[in-house]
């Protein structure tokens, strides 16, 4: 796996102009009006909802390639690396939502936005909530592309309907993050913590530094993480990078030492010890188990 490629805007773009800082809609799969067949793996620092009206797209995510046939929609959370391969007749829209908008919803009902931090793929089925979500997406696209009175208020209402619809669909197919009750403020901090881990992408950063970035104490962050996941912040950080290491180790392109450095762990021996502690195997044994010879 190569180094993560981030775009601050849409694909191949360094910026994005959110309407009132909340939402932006663009045609898919086009960049500057030019059709893009292959969208190489990358990530964004905002949430994306894809409305696929025609054609087929293949979504590449981690080790998976999933074929999505129109009419359908799928969502890509912030900081999730993904790639797309599009058929010549592929047509649709991308609805980009800023973190500011999502956190405004998060303060009212945190569980709704927490569900959006995973990829969801749904094909249209008559009479289900899926149809309602696609209708909401089409209304958002139409409203965004017009300049009517009350546009901002209408967009906020339509996106709220969309987000709630996505939440209801996901609740039918997934379980809550965990059964413990936690207030919305804690969930906001926890979500920001996870996003910081993915964005900073360094094993070196301490729990204290993360807490400082969040504007809370390390003890407060520790309580939040235990309340929501039953794990400490350090365990959450370690688990994330062990999962990243497992992905990298399935490729023969990099040595174990190179992978250690890529994850900003300057001591490969410590990296190997931690990896074995978490997985029961050394990095070398993990590769051998998966039939990879360095």
TrEMBL record:
PROSITE patterns: HTH_ARAC_FAMILY_2. SUPFAM superfamilies: Homeodomain-like. The keyword Transcription applies. GO terms for molecular function: DNA-binding transcription factor activity; sequence-specific DNA binding. It holds the Pfam family HTH_18. Keywords: DNA-binding, Transcription, Transcription regulation. Residues 191-289 form the HTH araC/xylS-type domain. Transmembrane segments: none annotated. It comes from the Bacteria. This is AraC family transcriptional activator of pobA. It comes from Arcicella aurantiaca.
């Amino acid at each position: 796996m190569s180094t993560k490629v981030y775009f601050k805007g849409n694909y191949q773009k360094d910026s994005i102009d959110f309407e009132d800082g909340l939402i932006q809609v663009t045609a898919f799969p086009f960049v500057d009006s030019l059709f893009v067949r292959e969208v190489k793996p990358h990530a964004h620092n905002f949430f994306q909802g894809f409305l696929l009206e025609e054609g087929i797209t293949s979504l590449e995510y981690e080790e998976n390639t999933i074929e999505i046939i129109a009419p359908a929609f799928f969502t890509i959370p912030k900081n999730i690396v993904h790639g797309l391969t599009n058929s010549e007749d592929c047509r649709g829209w991308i609805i980009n939502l800023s973190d500011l908008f999502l956190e405004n919803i998060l303060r009212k009902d945190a569980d709704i936005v927490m569900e959006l931090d995973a990829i969801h793929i749904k094909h249209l089925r008559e009479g289900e909530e899926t149809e309602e979500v696609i209708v909401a997406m089409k209304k958002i696209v139409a409203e965004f592309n017009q300049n009517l009175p009350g546009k901002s208020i209408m967009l906020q209402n339509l996106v709220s309907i969309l987000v709630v619809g996505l939440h209801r669909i996901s609740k039918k197919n997934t379980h809550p993050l965990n059964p413990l009750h936690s207030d919305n403020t804690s969930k906001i901090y926890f979500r920001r913590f996870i996003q910081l881990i993915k964005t900073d992408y360094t094993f070196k950063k301490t729990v204290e530094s993360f807490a400082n970035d969040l504007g809370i104490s390390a003890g407060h962050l520790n309580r939040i993480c235990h309340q929501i996941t039953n794990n400490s912040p350090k365990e959450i950080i370690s688990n994330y990078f062990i999962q990243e290491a497992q992905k990298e180790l399935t490729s023969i392109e990099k040595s174990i030492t190179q992978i250690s450095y890529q994850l900003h762990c300057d001591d490969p021996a410590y990296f190997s010890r931690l990896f074995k502690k978490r997985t029961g195997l050394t990095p070398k044994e993990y590769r051998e188990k998966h039939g990879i010879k360095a």
